[in-house]
Amino acid sequence: MSRSIDNKKLVEQFWQDLYDRDFDKVGAYFAEDGHYTDVPAPGAGAYGPAQIAARLRLGLEMLSGYEHHLKHIVADDTVVVTEHAEKWFWETGESVLLPFVSVHEVGPDGKLVRWHDYWDFNTLMNAAPAWWLEHIAKGFA
C-alpha cells in the first residue's frame, strides 16, 4: 500500500476512536512532541499524548452527546485533510453543528506530529452554555 493510503486509514481509525471518546487511545496516536491545536481558539494547544488526551477530555467529556459527520478525507503522502462536522449536545439542552477542516501530519514512524483543527469560533461561542465555557476556560491539567 502507498503511504497516503496507510495514513488515510490511520486517520480514519483516529476519528473512530475519538468519537468513541477513548481519549487516552487518541493521545497515543501522537509522537511525544506531537502538537494539537484548535486554530481559532486562544492558547498554544497541547503537546504529546498525555496533554492531548487531557485537552480532549476537557472539551468533550462533559458533552451529553457527540456525533461525527464525515464529508471528505484526502491524503497526500504525510498529510491527511478531513472535511467534517461535529454535532455537540450539552445536558442542559444546547447543541451546535460545528463544521471543521482538520489537518493531520504523520511522521515517519506512523505517529501523528501535527493536528490542527480549523472551525468558526463564533459558531461555538454562540451555542455553548456559559457553564461549559467557564469549565474549558480553566484549562487542562
TrEMBL record:
SnoaL-like domain segment(s): 11-115
InterPro entries: NTF2-like_dom_sf, SnoaL-like
Coiled-coil parts of chain: none
Organism encoding this protein: Yinghuangia soli
Pfam families in UniProt: SnoaL_2
SUPFAM superfamilies: NTF2-like
Protein name: Nuclear transport factor 2 family protein
